[in-house]
Amino acid sequence: MYSKEFQESIKKVEATRKERLNQDFPKLSLAERSVLLEAYHPDYKKGTMREILIGANKDDKTPHEFADLFEAYSHINPDNFIVPAPKYETDVLIIGGGGAGVTAAIIANQAKADVFLVTKLRIADANTTMAQGGIQAADKANDSPAIHYLDVVGGGGFHNIPELVQALVNDGPEIIRWLEDLGVIFDKAPDGTMLSIHGGGTSRKRMHPCRDYTGAEIMRCLKDEFLDQKIKYLEYTGALDLLTDKNGNCVGAVLVNMENGEIFTVKAKTTIIATGGAGQLHIQGFPTSNHYGATADGLVIGYRAGAKLAFLDTIQYHPTGVGYPEQILGQLITEKVRGVGAQLVNADGERFIYDLETRDVVASAIIREVQDRKKGIASVASGGVWLDTPLIEMKSGSGTILKQLPAMYRQFIKFGIDMTKEPVITYPTQHYQNGGILCTEFGETNVPGLYVVGEASGGVHGRNRLMGNSLLDILVFGRRAGKYAAEQATKTKQVNEGTIEHIKKYHQELEKAGVPRERKSPILLPDYRPQEFKGKYSFLSHLKD
Amino acid sequence: MTTKDKSLATIYIMGKEYKVPGSLTILQAIEASGFLFVRGCGCRGGFCGACSTVYRTKDSYKLKVALACQTKIEDGMYLAQIPFYPGNKATHNLSKIKPTTETLCMLYPEIMRCISCGSCTKVCPQDIKVMDYINAAIRGDYKKIAELSFDCIMCGLCATRCPAEIVQYNVALAARRIYGAYVMKKAPHLDKRLEDMQAKKFLTEIETLMKSSTDQLKERYTKRELEK
Q1: Considering only CA atoms, which of B45, B50, B53, B49 is closest in space to residue B70?
Q2: Is the bond preceding A86 in cis, omega lying within 30 degrees of 0?
Q3: Does the global pTM surpass 0.90?
Q4: Could you give the CA distance from residue A344 to residue A366 in angstroms, rounded to a whole number?
Q5: Could you give the CA distance from residue A272 to residue A101 in angstroms, rounded to a whole number?
Q6: Residue among B38, B48, B95 whose CB faces A129 most closely
Q7: CB < 8 Å to A532, chain B
Q8: What CA–CA distance (Å, rounded) separates A166 from A413?
Q9: To 5 degrees, how large is the angle CA A125–CA A127–CA A130?
Q10: Which of A143, A215, A463, B153 has the CA that lies 20 to 30 A from B89?
């Protein structure tokens, strides 16, 4: 139940509900989309980005928050750090224990490679677990991978890398079958037909949900399979930097046990970065729907080793983050809520955008409604419009929300808001890193021996990802890179000694560019403590400056 | 002791007193008290089960549980997290398993020790009928377990309270995977599509798209038919 200050606006929403129920709202043309994006999308906001001073993407623009990570020194000082002899040796080292990393591990292990996975939190502590609405794949008769391809590139502003999109859409059906075989429980009719729905920017209903726990369901099955295969792993182990040999090839990593501070190295024939996204950077001060560990560590260590980045000037703001209550500000309200019939309306109960435009477009429209048209909900200081959820029950019958959106129901009822009866308040939240480390359709980066998968990679989604294509992406490229890295590792007879020469050179360039010595990366964990407690993390405190 | 400033709440983190803004979640309150989470914090959104917390409020003997990221603090809360629980997981090869009535009892014989005390159901922060699905597991009723346990986030609180030492969330996961892989029907339209893919039915069309100019793509995109 909302307090008094919201009631007047809620009445307006209720007053227009019946009329809106079966009302069509016009979709935007491509030209109209561009105008809206350029005027209101945060990517276009002046003064929020700068050119990177050094490295493979020198002079490329990226948000300040990213630039601060690239223009930063390693936690290890190459002038006084002696690289310890490898504690572990492996064929394939995987950094990151989310959906992409665990998938790569399962497949590399099945390809008979020796696999070692490290993750700074627990296996499955990842954005994958938080994905709610569904996974895309063109597996119905009225759909095809070619139609899926067109939706992907249209959503991405026609900037996507064609070879990556081709891999994504072509592997889709096979991925869904793989998941069925792993025991993933999709929403199905009794005869096995998938109960698929629309997402923003899809031209076919190809979103396969598992209630609104799709990512959690996929991730727990992957994790269970990973454990069943008895693959070696270490949790609470962060990556400080990669190791390179005399030829610049990646040959492993320098790691830290984040509980006792032990620094050690793993020697690997191939290394896969699967470190996920960057929501915890809070770009432009946005809240985030992301996991605690989403701090772009892989981008940082990859970049220092020479890996080239792509599309790092574009961030996805999910249109419907929680706008109220403040305790869960920025957490995700899945697009599935609109997929099953909820509508966005302003404080006066008026619609202002077709609800299933692509995410970048819907987010921009909400920002316009609040900042420019002043039609946001007045009592929400951080900005917000209504997402009219009782419409779902009106359209599809009472009980639909509890059945199809149990996680969303829980999220709000814990704070006294019953979304079956009252609308919820929403505003864009930092959700996804459209860009990342550039790679081929097998996950290879430009650094020999180094691979990248999942959100840490960039190119497949262009400048805006569609709903349900990230769950597909992590599985498609996790499998491809896992197989390929395993094959390459098996072919490799000998691995040269791992060094940190690349860090030495990187530091010299940083100094030349005048970057302050105190600035260090990767972040590993975001620091939400009050200012007076902030400082070097205890597990890094013994490293000499 | 009570806090004079109404906007502040007094909480006790593992018995030690801290004063924090009263509007915070338990997770935020622990951070506001100066702690950096290494363990005990995950998705911060109620999906991962990393932040299971046991608490008691002042003047009450009752132990309550919560996900720290989804629960607002109350004045006088005594808080302790359970960031790890050494629960048993039976490893198995799903591709070779048989979905019989006995399978779950063979993987997890301890489920037979359930005394139907209901502690697991009472403790579940997702309000899942845990005891009911354990009873279904004993009967080998996969559908029932899958339906009842689906919203489990594997926080592990049920296992911490079980006098029979059952690790309910792992039993449920094994049952759901068996149900998903063997009992549910595979998607028939997917069989068909996989045949299409094998026959490389869409190859030329996609290659054409890959070679198309941006203007050509835009035209096709704009003209594409939208499923109602």
Answers
A1: B45
A2: no
A3: yes
A4: 9
A5: 8
A6: B48
A7: 34
A8: 42
A9: 95
A10: A215
